[in-house]
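Hi L.,

You mentioned the student needs an example of a multi-chain input paired with its predicted structure. This one should do, with 659 residues in total across all chains.
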Amino acid sequence: MSPLRLALRTLMLARIRSVLAILMVAASLCVLDLFSGHIASVRARLEYQVVMGERLGHLAVMRSPRQDGPDQLRMFAPAEAKQVRAIVEAAGGVALVMPQMSVNGIASSGQRSALFHGEGVSDMPEAAPGSLQALPGKIKAANRNGIAVSSAQAQSLGLRHGSSVTLTGAGNHAAAQTVKAEVIDVYNGPERADGPGGLMMPLQMAQTLNDTARTERFVVFLSDPDKLEEQRAALATALRAVDLSVDVRTWQEQSAAYMRERGTSDLAFDSVAGMVFAVIAATIAATMSMNALERRREVGTLRALGMRSHAVFFMFIAEALGMALAGVAASLVGSGLIAWIVNRAALSYSPGQASTSAPMLVELDFNRMGMAVVMVVAVALLAALVPSFKAARTAVAPSLVA
Amino acid sequence: MDGNAEQGKEGVARAFGDLVRLSGVHKYYSGGSAGVHALNGIDLQLGAGEIVSVCGPSGSGKTSLLSLIGMLEAPTEGSVVIASLLTGKLSEQARAELRADTIGMVFQAFTLIPVLSVRENVLLPLKLRGQPDGDTWQAVHARADELLAQLGLSTMADHFPRDLDPSQSQRVAIARALIGRPRLVLADEPGSRLDGAGIRMTMDLFAREQAAHGTAFLVSTRDQRQLSRVTRTLQLSDGRLQNVVTTSSRKPFRAEV
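Structure written out for the whole complex:
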């Protein structure tokens, strides 16, 4: 009878205390799994908002910044822009490349004026993947004065389809330029948290407002966003190979809001994980200590019948690990079930200072769940060391006296 | 166990003849305000096939004597020789192997393993050893069932200890001590939870094992009803052997000594 078999038998015919310990491990892990799943869900929404909603794309190719130079030198000259676009479009795994230019200024409807933060974008090619056709703000090449405004901006200026608006650019190194524009789309895309109302315009209009023929950046949408870092490295290498001084940034690096959320949620997750692992460690240690104490006679009998002390140690360790793994298995079932119920229930919540509610969704973050399982096994092992050692050192003769 | 090899490794002193020989054995337990001198200069020989009872009041040293012979404890002074091997010179592993190969034990606390069935509890000493000595597992299982039947537990083989009353549990512990056909059985008050019929059944079984396999028994008891089958009775008082009474003309078994 091996110690492992005895440990498994003990677990299968578990005492109430062991069952409670397994349930405690499972419940603690469920909390961690669901929290990590919620974080994953929030991050997925933020990624969509940043990449698609704010049109930042997965990657952005920019001229390497020159801190002491004028704005113009931070943009690609027309010849450079042509070269960059050709190289990026030829790279594998790229779904769409769009030249873009940011422009700030004042929008006036004739009765009201407001600051705007606009993006000059090129037309969406008809061949672009369907998922990208959903990018907010429909700009048409045929209408060179047509702009799309966010619903918040439209409300602020009292604009609607067909309204006329005057835009005045506010570039630091350019003469102020003014253009007449017509609202051809009002979109419900997300508002930027760090600036005034959103506005989409043709790239040429943005260049006019900034008084330049240059292109600020190329936004790149990838076919497989999971290969973000590989693609970034490949593009940077390809562009630098032809002596282009470029900076390729990921969407995370460009979004301060995302990086803030990531820092906050990582801190929260680490805190919750610390508490969960402390609870699991205390549960396993307490359960195994009580088991070792209550089973003194049983251990004494096994030792007297020929079981070696290291086998007793291994038996208790195996029991603790079995308990932890049973808890892990129960937590996987529990987490999956709870996530399914929460997602089906279509709950919503109001994140932070947002005025509108967001759907409460829970994904299962298998990477973090896998790490949690490894941690639980390690924690259970450490927590069981002292009780198992004490059980292994049980004095045989005194334990067998009635 | 290879005795010669062990002798070479451990420098074991050999003594021939007796299955058990204790010479000048003292056992002193320290602790508390005053220590306890549990055994005080015990000299004892036990041959194969003997059924010896150790009588004495509670605290007279019966359990300590059995613990020393069972190598669960070491003497403070003196020597314990089991099957010609001086136990004090053996490593923990060698002692465990000698105990597993030579001795069956019925503990005062007769603890059964709660997660094993009655039959599995009986087979446990052999399962812990990993193989039945010379027998097939099938034969060993049959022997377990036979022992249980002789102790009136044939219907309980697949039950778990929680289903047994104390008398049945004690009988399972007795079967467990006998399963490996040990040369010596140490039984610490084996009849403490048995009624008259149970004690007779047990003592009859001991006599059959003695007759068939030459098993020696050292049985500690406070109950005079258990003395009917014994060849010798040792009287212990305050850790000293007071007198030895030969209570039966039964000859000790000598066949394989």
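You could point out the following to them. Chain A touches chain B at residues 1, 6, 9-10, 12-13, 297-298, 300-302, 304-309, 396-397, 399-402 (CB under 8 Å). Chain A has twelve helices and eleven strands.

Best wishes,
N.
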